[in-house]
Each structure stands twice: as C-alpha cells, then as structure tokens.
TrEMBL record:
InterPro entries: 6-hairpin_glycosidase_sf (IPR008928), 6hp_glycosidase-like_sf (IPR012341). One of its GO terms (biological process) is carbohydrate metabolic process. The lineage of its organism: Eukaryota, Discoba, Heterolobosea, Tetramitia, Eutetramitia. The keyword Repeat does not apply. SUPFAM superfamilies: Six-hairpin glycosidases. Keywords: Signal. This is 4-hydroxy-tetrahydrodipicolinate reductase. Residues 1-18 form the signal peptide.
Length: 786
C-alpha cells in the first residue's frame, strides 16, 4: 500500500515556464517536479529517481534522460556462502508502506519527503527517507537520504546510494586530485579520499553532484559505450562498509566472491552515514556548478560562455591526472579509456600554457589549485642554469621522471618561456600574490636561461631548437623564439613593476630583440625561419613565427604586417583558399620534409595546430580584422565543439580531424580566444583591460564566470567590474571601446562602506584611463555623464 500525505493543496496554477515557477505532480506511482530548468521523477512503485531531464534555458524544452535504468537508488551489497549477491536495491520494488509527504508546494519551492524506501521489498534490512527539494529558477535540486537498519544484517558488505548516469564521461574532483574516465572496461573506482565534486558530461548533457555530507567511500563509475550496461557514468556514495571491489584507488570490476573478514555487519537500528547532496543538471555538455556559477538568465553572448565552459570542463579539467600523481600533472588527452602519449605529462611547448590559461579563465578555486600544483611540479626541478624539464614521464603508479628533451630529441626554448607565462597567468587570475613573491626568484632564473642566449651583435636570442613545434629543425637565431620573447620580456617587466623590482632591462631587451628581428630576419613580405651565426639562412615561411610577430606588433614599419598577412592568407591550406575551408591554422608555406625534421618525423608538417591559430587570432585582431577572426577561426571550432564535445589533436588541409582523439589543445584554444578576444578581459598584475571584440555588431555583454563579473555596454556607455580576487589593490584601468572624448562618471564602491565618484574622459581612441582598487570588497562601475 502506498500512502500519499498531502500537507498542502496539489491544485496548482498552470506553470508559466518563462517565469520559472515550480510544478508538482503526485500520483500513486510517480512523483514529478518541474521548474522549467529541470524535471525529475521519483518512481514510487520501483523506488528511485528514475528520470532527470534538463533545459539550460529554463523554458521546459527538456533534453535526454540523464539517469540510466537504475536511476538514483538505495543499494545493499551482501555476501552469501562466500559469494557477493546481486546488489539488493530499492528499485527492485516498493515495500508495503511507502509514504509520500508533500512538505512544501508553492510556485517558488517544492519539497517532497518519501519514507519507507527499503532495500528489498520482500525481506528488507534497511529503510530510508528521501527528501527532494526544487526551487524556482534553479538548475539544481537538493537530495538527502537518511538510512537505518531495521534488523540485524550479519552478511552486509556495504550500503550505498548509487547514481547511475547516461553522460559519456565521469569526473571525480577529490581532495587528492582529479580522476576522469570514459568507456572503462573495469567500471568502478573507489576512494576514501574526500570527494569535493563529481560531474559527468557528454552526449546526453551534464550532471554535477556537490556533497555536503561525508560518505565513508565514494565510487566513480564508467562503462563502455557498446556494453549492455544501463549507465555510462555515475557515482556511488557508500553509507556503510566498503563497496565490493578488490581495492581503492584503481579501476576495478565487482568482486564475485569475498571472504568473511571483508564483511561489515549491521545491527538493528544502526544509523548510517547520511547522504546530502546538491545535484545540478544541464541538457548541454558543460556542468552548472552552483546556482550562481552561471547567471540564470541567458545573455546575448551565451554561445561563447557555453563554449568556454564546455571547452574547459570536458577537456583540460578532465586531462588532469593528479589523483594518480598528486604532485600535479596533466595529460595531452582525457582518458577514453586510453590516453594519447601516455605516460607523458606537463608539456610546456606550449601545451600546459594553453591548459593553465584556459583553466584559470573559469575562476574555479579547485582548478586554480590544480594549476598551481602543475607549476610547482616543474619549478622543483629547475636546473642551476635555469632550464626546466620539457615534460615528465610516469614511472610506475605514482612517480614522475623529468626529461629535458622533447619527444623528437630537440632542446626547445618553449618549456622555459611558456612555464613563466603560465606562472603569471596563474597569479593574475587567482590573485595569489604571495605565491608570486615566493616564486619570483625561480621565475627570474627560468627567464635567465633564455636571456643568457642573447647575442648583442644580432640583437637576437640564439635558440638551441624550435619554440613550439618539436619535430621541426629550427635553431640559432630563429624567428619563432625571438617573436615570443618580445612578448615574454614585456610580461616579466610587468611582474617586476608589481614587485617593485627593476624592470627596465627586460623592456630594453624586448625593444632590442624587436630591432634584431626586423634587421636580420625580414625578407620582402615575411620573416624567415632563421639566420645562423655565419649569416646563412633557412626559410620555410613559418606561419607560427610570422603570426606571433604580427600579434605582438613586432613588424617595423607597420606596413610589414599587411604584407605578412597577405602572404600567409594566400597559402593553399589557409582559410577560404580550398573547397573545404581548413580549420586554423596551417604550419608553413614550405613543407618540412624528413631531412628538415628531427628523426625524419614529418607528422606535424602537413596539418593545422591550435597554438598557431592562437597567434593568427591575435594577429587578425591586431590588424582590426575581427570578421575573419570569427569566420575562419572561432566560429568553425565552436561548431565542432558543440557537435562533438571533444576534439582531435590536429586537422588536415580539408578540415578532417587528424592525430590523437580527445586531445585538449583545440578546446583550450577556444576558451582562450573567448576570454582574451571576444570579451577582451585581461586581469593584469598592474593593469585591468576590458577591450571586447564582439561579433555581429554587438556592443554589450555580461561575463559572469566564477567570481568574476564584467558588465559592458558600448552603445549606452556603461560598465561594471566585480571580482573575488585582487584584494582591493589599486591598479590602472583601461576600459572600453566607447565614444572618444566623452565624459564618464566612474564609481568605486566598497561593499558596506564608502562610495567615491570621479569624472573621467575617454581618450581619442574611446578608452577610459583611471586608477582604482581591484577586487573584493570593491566594485568599480561607470556610465556616461548625462
């Protein structure tokens, strides 16, 4: 018998989904709650949450079911005659006295308690009370499960609440580190380490579980696509005992037999560890991590925020392998279940610079900490001359071994250059200024490895190998390394200014190298690959080096930039020049054959690379060609991301995916371009810049990501900047593409405190220049002085 206790009326006014009201429906077999953002069903006859669907837009156009046939259910593992029984579960059938109690039922909130949910309808050992709460305008619901034993159970192995989900990939964010998996052949990864956050995404949408209780064990789930299993991902929260797998911290199968010493008997009336969690859902492939993580209303630039979140949380945030290697490492791919280039980690040529930049742009404290760990893994092994490891090799289950050469055997400048830039990205976007002070000497030593190679006669860095494409033979006075060092020196000078240390030498070096590049490396309409000490040259018309030079304003006179871009954009594998427009961006005009590649490896000679696309994107913006940036670079890649969630390592000339699948570079590129160019947000150590390049003539955006909020309207003439980092340090602001010579009222407001106004007039380029505190507890805003 099933009792339904209605504490308030169930005669609800029809829900208007655009108002995101909450609707409850209760029958003898089903409890359904709907608020426009999510719909969940609790099957009373087969007690479990049997259906969760979501609509990020909040209009009730729900996607696929995010839970498998097992749903979210109570489970009891037992041993009989030495054999592990099939998991006894609430989903096997309702007991004799299931009760549904409607605690709250308004248009703003619904709470339902379901009691007498048992593990076995015919012979129960356990009973539980499930409390489900859904609020208006929320993409999440709260779930608590309180379980107790109603009779002695001497053969218990474990009691748990299983969340069996349909998205493709599982992500466990443990206190120890990240554990991600998809398509596992062994389906269970147990851990007693604290689970900070679990999420799953891919194919059917995304699910996030944020625990506020502490189970005795958590088990991450993953299953193959072609299995008969009714789940692809999920998490089991163990309330008592230990889940029946051989060991924790490894992917395992369920045990078929078990010895008596592995049992965990239960006594009548024993209370088990409660499960209290908030579950956030989305029909799209990015996690909604909290009600405030993404603003509830869709704004005019939603497609770019979607791309940012999907790119980061599906790819680099999953490629972290820090549970297995707690010192902090990242793989070039996610686990699918294998990983490309396994067991190699933390490439800074420039892979990990992309990873850290992209991950820092979502302002997620857990991920920020992972980025810091990655940086410190390399910093601990800096050599006396300043050289950093090129990457790390996994040695056994948990140990790492550094190597100072690329896979190709090349000695590159990239690891030092891009590690230093990564360190600055971490500090700028976390506000961890104390870390910078502690690491400043290490950063300077790392930079010294590069600057010691400066030749004043050529005014260039003499590079031992290539900057960022390790297969290609490039050495001596190369255009790729020197173009990047122009930017690097300016960034280090900014660091020195922030630390009140001398900076002139770095700026002077940047200027001198710029002179050297233009004097020795420019030929007609491009920069050549290299000049040697004997003044002989090599030239493959490298797109990466030339685009970096344009992006960093190296060409002098400026007309050279136009010639360079014209030369590059005339290439056969460049956008619009073939029937199927290639993805960004191809490597070089002249093919690097085996004789010009380390070990004869031509694998990167006829493809595109995300790292070169980053340079091209910034070069196009430097040339005020925003339309080409969207048409040829960002929009096609976002289309691929939305369609596939995970992307390949490279593309060929016809835009066909190439090399390793589930590679993280192109998603990271998308995240970087969204933040740096679309929204134009730069949180510098000394200068805050807001310089958006919005598509389609748009002039306004709202960027609400993590603890950073930027509102901007170039047409109306207004802005607002609020951040949880920064600590209120006074910084220079450069805001806008507003009308030139226009007076604004800029307001600096301390929350719960003073308010200061100042009048500021835009410069001839329409940019506001002023000084103000940055970060909590200050909010900085401005509008045209009407």
């Amino acid at each position: 018998m099933i009792k339904i206790l209605l504490l308030i009326s169930l005669f609800l006014v029809e829900v208007i989904l655009c108002d995101q009201q909450v609707k409850l429906s209760v029958s003898s077999s089903l409890v359904s709650i709907d608020n426009g953002f999510l719909q969940l069903e609790f099957d009373v006859k087969s007690p479990r949450i049997s259906k969760i669907t979501a609509d990020f837009n909040g209009v009730g156009e729900y996607g696929k079911n995010l839970v498998g046939d097992r749903g979210i259910s109570l489970e009891h593992s037992l041993v009989v005659g030495g054999k592990v029984t099939t998991l006894s579960s609430s989903r096997s059938g309702a007991g004799s006295n299931v009760q549904v109690k409607v605690v709250t039922n308004t248009t703003k909130s619904v709470q339902v308690d379901i009691s007498n949910v048992v593990d076995d309808s015919s012979n129960p050992f356990l009973t539980s009370v499930w409390s489900i709460k859904v609020d208006q305008s929320h993409r999440d619901f709260s779930l608590s499960v309180d379980t107790k034993c109603i009779r002695d159970s001497p053969d218990t192995i474990s009691v748990q609440v299983g969340n069996y989900l349909t998205p493709t990939s599982s992500f466990g964010n443990f206190q120890r580190g990240v554990q991600q998996m998809m398509n596992a052949t062994q389906n269970y990864f147990g851990s007693t380490n604290k689970l900070t956050r679990y999420y799953a995404l891919g194919d059917t949408g995304s699910v996030v579980s944020l625990l506020s209780s502490t189970p005795v064990q958590n088990v991450i789930l993953s299953a193959e696509y072609n299995r008969t299993s009714d789940f692809r991902s999920g998490v089991v929260h163990v309330q008592h005992g230990s889940f029946p797998i051989k060991r924790n911290d490894y992917w395992e199968s369920l045990l078929q037999s078990i010895t008596d010493d592995k049992k965990s008997p239960l006594k009548k009336s024993s209370a088990l560890a409660p499960i209290q969690t908030t579950i956030a859902v989305n029909h799209l492939d990015f996690p909604v991590l909290s009600p405030h993580h993404i603003h509830q209303q869709i704004n005019v630039n939603f497609e770019h925020l979607r791309a940012l979140y999907t790119a980061v949380y599906a790819s680099p945030a999953g490629a972290l392998v820090s549970y297995q290697f707690p010192s902090g490492v990242i793989s070039p791919t996610v686990a699918y279940p294998n990983r490309g280039y396994w067991p190699l980690f933390n490439f800074y040529d420039p892979d990990s610079w992309f990873s850290i930049s992209a991950m820092m742009y979502v302002s997620d404290p857990y991920i920020n900490n992972e980025c810091r760990k990655m940086l410190e893994t390399s910093a601990k092994l800096v050599q006396p001359d300043g050289q950093l490891p090129h990457h790390f090799i996994g040695d056994g289950d948990h140990d790492l071994r550094p190597t100072f050469e690329a896979i190709s055997g090349a000695t590159q400048t990239g690891p030092n250059i891009f590690w230093a830039l990564s360190a600055l990205q971490y500090v700028k976007n976390s506000g961890d200024y104390e870390w910078l002070k502690k690491q400043a000497d290490t950063i300077r030593l790392v930079i010294k490895y590069i600057t010691d190679r400066y030749d004043p006669n050529f005014q260039l860095i003499n590079a031992p190998g290539p900057l960022q494409i390790d297969t290609m033979i490039r050495n001596n006075f190369t255009s790729d390394t020197n173009a990047m060092v122009v930017y690097l020196m300016d960034q280090i000078a900014e660091m020195q200014d922030f630390l009140n240390e001398p900076s002139d030498a770095y700026r002077e070096l940047s200027k001198n190298i710029k002179i050297g590049i233009n004097k020795w490396l420019y030929r007609n309409d491009h920069y050549i690959t290299q000049i040697n000490p004997d003044k002989s040259t090599r030239d493959f018309i490298d797109y990466d080096a030339n685009l970096l030079a344009v992006a960093f304003n190296v060409p002098e006179p400026k007309e050279r930039s136009l010639k360079i871009m014209k030369r590059i954009l005339s290439g056969k594998c460049v956008h619009g020049n073939v029937k199927k427009s290639p993805r960004a961006t191809f490597v070089s005009e002249i093919y690097y054959d085996a004789a010009n590649c380390y070990g004869g490896n031509t694998g990167d000679s006829d493809i595109t690379m995300g790292r070169i696309a980053w340079a091209e994107a910034h070069a196009l913006v430097a040339m005020n060609d925003t339309s080409s940036f969207y048409q040829f670079i960002l929009d096609p890649l976002i289309e691929d991301l939305n369609q596939h969630t995970w992307l390949y390592e490279r593309y060929d000339c016809d835009s066909n995916p190439a090399h390793n699948s589930f590679y993280i570079e192109y998603p990271e590129l998308i995240a970087m371009l969204v933040r740096e160019i679309v929204f134009g947000i730069e949180l510098g150590l000394n200068v805050i810049r807001i310089n958006p390049h919005l598509p389609g003539g748009r002039s306004e955006f709202e960027y609400a990501v993590g603890d950073l909020l930027v509102e901007y309207d170039g047409h109306v003439g207004s802005f607002l900047i609020e951040s949880g980092i920064g600590g209120g340090l006074v910084k220079k602001y450069r805001v806008g593409k507003f009308l030139p010579k226009t007076e604004f009222v800029v307001v600096v407001e301390k929350k719960g405190g003073d308010r200061k106004e100042m009048k500021v007039t835009t410069c001839e380029h329409g940019v506001l220049h002023f000084d103000a505190p940055f970060g909590a507890p200050f909010v900085v805003s401005g509008k045209i002085n009407a």
